[in-house]
Write a structure and sequence with these properties.
Layout lengths: L23 H16 L1 E2 L1 H8 L3 H13 L3 E4 L4 E4 L1 H13 L1 H17 L2 E8 L2 E8 L14 E3 L4 H8 L3 H9 L14 H14 L2 E4 L6 E9 L5 E10 L6 H20 L6
Antiparallel strand pairs: 1-3, 2-3, 4-5, 4-9, 5-6, 7-8, 8-9
C-alpha cells in the first residue's frame, strides 16, 4: 500500500484574511479602538453605526477588548470608553519618542518666554495629533488635550510641517487632503494654501490666523528627523488679540528657535 503523500508548504491559517493581507477581525477591533479614542466614550448602538459594523459583532469585539482592559464599560451610563491598557500602550510610544522627551523642557521655556500655551504635535496622514502641551497660566488661553486631531491645512503646526516637506511627498499629501472650511479664514483653495506654504518655508515659521477656531491664532515651526524630514511640530497658541503687530514676528522667532533646538537634541538634521 502506498503511503499517502503529506501536503507540502505551510498549513492554511484558521484566520480569515482580506485581499489586502490584513486580518478582518483585527482590522475591526482596531477600528473600534480608534473610534472610541476619537469619541472619548460612546454607546454600543451609536458606536456600531459609526463604524458600520453589526451591533452583535461590535459587542463581541468590545467584550474581548474589555477582557484585556483595552476598553471599559460604564454600567450607569451604558457607555464604552478607552481602558487602562490602551493608555499604557500609548505611554510606551511617548517614552520611546525622543522628540516628545526632549521637547518637554523646551516647551516649558517657550511658554514662559512667550506667555502663551506651547504645543507639540506629530503628523498622521492629512492631520496632526497633539501629543504634548504646556498651558499658560493666563486665564484666557488655548487648550488641546493630548490625542486631539486637527486638519493640517487649518493648523499652525500642520502648515509648518507641510511647508518643510520635500516636494514629492507634499504633492502626494495635498492630492489626498480635503480643504474643509472651518472658519472664514480657512484655506479652501490649493493655490491659496500653496502660496502660504511657500511663505512659511521662506521665513521658517507658520501663522494660523483664526483658520481653525474663530478668535484663536497659532504660530508653529517644524521639527526634523535625522533625514531632514518633518516628524513633528511645535507651536504657541492663544487669543488672536494677543497675536498682533511686531509680537507675531517675535513669537515666530522664538517658536522657530525652539523647533531647531528640539531637532538638534533629538538627533535631527537640518533640511
Amino acid at each position: 500500500m502506498d503511503t499517502p503523500k503529506r501536503p507540502r508548504g505551510r498549513p492554511k491559517s484558521q484566520f480569515k484574511e482580506s485581499s489586502a493581507g490584513t486580518m478582518q477581525a483585527l482590522d475591526r477591533a482596531l477600528g473600534v479602538l480608534v473610534a472610541l479614542a476619537r469619541d472619548q466614550s460612546n454607546t454600543l448602538s451609536d458606536l456600531s453605526r459609526e463604524i458600520d459594523i453589526p451591533t452583535a459583532t461590535t459587542h463581541r469585539i468590545l467584550t474581548t477588548l474589555q477582557a484585556h482592559r483595552f476598553v471599559s464599560f460604564d454600567e450607569e451610563r451604558q457607555e464604552w470608553a478607552i481602558g487602562i491598557e490602551a493608555y499604557r500602550t500609548g505611554a510606551a510610544f511617548l517614552k520611546r519618542n525622543s522628540v516628545i522627551e526632549v521637547g518637554r523642557p523646551v516647551m516649558r521655556r517657550l511658554m514662559a518666554e512667550s506667555g502663551e500655551t506651547a504645543n507639540l504635535a506629530v503628523p498622521d496622514g492629512t492631520e496632526v495629533v497633539f501629543v504634548g502641551q504646556v498651558e499658560t497660566p493666563n486665564p484666557i488661553r488655548a487648550f488641546f488635550p493630548p490625542g486631539t486631531r486637527t486638519s493640517m491645512h487649518a493648523s499652525g503646526t500642520g502648515k509648518a510641517i507641510l511647508a518643510a516637506m520635500r516636494p514629492q511627498r507634499l504633492q502626494a499629501l495635498l492630492e489626498d487632503m480635503p480643504l474643509t472650511p472651518f472658519t472664514a479664514q480657512t484655506h479652501v483653495t490649493l493655490s491659496g494654501l500653496t502660496s502660504d506654504l511657500h511663505a512659511i518655508a521662506a521665513r521658517g515659521w507658520s501663522h494660523d490666523r483664526e483658520e481653525r477656531h474663530a478668535g484663536m491664532s497659532c504660530i508653529g515651526a517644524a521639527i526634523l528627523n535625522d533625514r531632514g524630514e518633518p516628524c513633528a511640530g511645535i507651536s504657541v497658541s492663544g487669543p488672536t488679540a494677543r497675536f498682533n503687530g511686531e509680537r507675531i514676528h517675535d513669537l515666530g522667532r522664538r517658536v522657530a528657535q525652539a523647533a531647531r533646538e528640539i531637532t538638534e537634541l533629538s538627533g535631527g538634521a537640518s533640511a
